[in-house]
Design goal:
By secondary structure, this protein is an alpha+beta fold. It has helices spanning about 15-25, 60-70, 70-85; strands at about 1-10, 35-40, 50-60, 85-95. Strands 2-3-1-4 form a 4-stranded antiparallel β-sheet. α1 packs antiparallel against α3 (about 70-85). The longest helix is centred in the C-terminal third of the chain and has 14 residues, at about 70-85. It is globular and about 40 Å long.
């Protein structure tokens, strides 16, 4: 199981049409095959400058690769991510194996 997470800050103002457009486009990524447990969250801690987080899970590396290379994901990156995100951090987690 791989949990793909990204936290980010948008260039757009809170509540703006641009923010809504971005979040709506991001939510559509949940429709890509193999995506599980897709969630968009608003950051509430003052300890982190990022304002949103997205997480999703994949059963295998192959499924994650399918998502990463999917035309809808690539289009989202080009049309929305590269033009709207001011800063981000991405992390992918796998469970530790039992000792």
């Amino acid at each position: 199981m791989i949990e793909h997470t990204v936290t980010f800050r948008l260039k757009h103002s809170h509540g703006s049409d641009e923010e809504t457009t971005f979040l709506t486009a991001a939510a559509a990524l949940a429709e890509i095959q193999y995506v599980k447990d897709f969630v968009i969250r608003r950051q509430t801690s003052p300890k982190n400058p990022h304002t949103f987080g997205i997480s999703m899970r994949f059963d295998t590396q192959e499924q994650y690769d399918f998502y990463s290379n999917h035309p809808a994901h690539q289009a989202f990156i080009q049309k929305h991510w590269l033009t709207s995100v001011d800063d981000f951090q991405e992390a992918d987690f796998e469970p530790l194996e039992s000792a």
